[in-house]
Amino acid sequence: MHIRIALPHLLRSTATAAVLTLLTAATTTVTQAAPTASEHDVERTVFVDASSVPADQLRGMDHLVPYTEYARSHGSNVPARRTADVPAPDDPQDLHQECTKHAAQAKATTGWIKSRFESCQKRPFDLVLRDIRGTTTLGRLKFDQWVLGFAYDGSRRVDYVASIENIIVQPIPTEDATKWRLGQHFRHSVDVSSSGPDPQVTAPQTEERDELLGVWDTQPHWNLTYTSPDKGPLFDQGNQQRVASTVSMDLSASSPNAAPFTGGSTVYNSNVRYDYAGKVAGKFKGTVFTQARVELAMSQKDPAVNESALHIYDALNRPERTFPSWPGKSVPGGKEPLHRLIDKDKQEANRNRSIKECGKVWGDWKGTKLQCDEYPFASTKEGSTKGDNRFSVRLIDGADNETGGRRLDQMYTLNRILDGDSFYMKITN
């Protein structure tokens, strides 16, 4: 169920509180000033990434406190933190916890992409506020930016749960952190060259939120829903209504005395595909995160597919043991992806070519329970008719071969793998 957070409707900062995007370039060497800046020193300020400031110039700026504690000590009436409005597309709390465990991947621009249907970003920020001349340090601000992404098998919709959390501050006495602001500014685009005819995306009514730290602290979460309209089932006419879209986000920081600097810096990026592909995709329509790595996993200890798994393992790791045999042979699917092939005639051509190769090596196996197993699969563009001989065939137990085929088909539909989509193999001992 999709629940939209009710947000206070605040306008973006005026010229006297102009939004500043994060500066990550190295700045002019500065000398740490005493925390008694004059009005002239602070009339034009800027937030910069702490990593661009030499360590000795951050001396004394390592005593940050939670924003709530700071606000109360400065006489602000801090409302209770709101948690009831946190949306639950599937179970964001579970994804939130998992994302924390994948900190290294989660802080990347694309975040940690758990699957074709779940992704998340947890990106810590450490900012220093100082005057634009680099002579006075006015404070420090740390926080975590979050974006949880949910795509759907069965709906042309994608949800993002965004938030600013764990805010801690340390301003000098003459600076008021209750007047500092942070903003999350989303935008979207459509890649027409990778989409079908007339690709469209409908954005949420509000794509940006710029608030005082106190508002973020008490109401950290908000959500956005992007959809793509469909025209009904047109896949039989060759129109899968594919829409390749990118959702990006800029982060801004500002204070009342900020210099009028704007520009934008993409700190989050998410690639999405909408489709109405029909039966070949499983559920007839849906949305996926296209940057997800899809793997078909098989175990050599699984009695249902152990012969299939061993064959694929040999093809990927010991190709000298496979047929056809030739010097320097390598087979894709491990480091190189495989790509789904939908065309039934081409699939049949792959099977016939593979069966012919099995006959060359093992002769007539009719009357046995064996079948000719081929890898890469007939339903991939890397199949045996590709012409590079980078494939392998082997006689294996027929039931094992058929079970492996069913698992392949399940992987296709569970992940909305369409024609040309990539995937990898993962074979365990």
Question: Can you give a write-up of this model?
Answer:
There is one protein chain. The chain is α+β, with helices and mostly antiparallel strands and 429 residues long. It folds into 2 domains: 275 residues, no CATH class; 134 residues, no CATH class. It has 8 helices and 18 strands. The strands form 4 sheets. Strands 2, 3, 4, 5, 6, 7 and 10 form a 7-stranded antiparallel sheet that branches. Strands 1, 8, 9, 11, 12 and 13 form a 6-stranded antiparallel sheet that branches. Strands 14-18-15 form a 3-stranded mixed sheet, covered by helices on one side. The longest helix is centred in the last third of the chain and has 19 residues. The two termini are 40 Å apart. The N terminus is likely disordered.
Quick recap of the structure?
By secondary structure, the chain is of the alpha+beta class.
Q: Mind sketching the topology for me?
A:
Blueprint: E1 20-21, H1 39-42, E2 45-49, E3 65-66, H2 67-73, H3 92-101, H4 103-106, E4 112-113, E5 118-131, E6 137-151, E7 157-171, E8 181-190, E9 208-212, H5 213-218, E10 221-227, E11 243-254, E12 266-275, E13 286-289, E14 295-299, H6 306-317, E15 338-339, H7 344-362, E16 370-375, E17 392-397, H8 398-414, E18 422-428
Parallel strand pairs: 14-18
Antiparallel strand pairs: 1-11, 2-5, 3-7, 4-5, 5-6, 6-7, 7-10, 8-9, 8-11, 11-12, 12-13, 15-18, 16-17
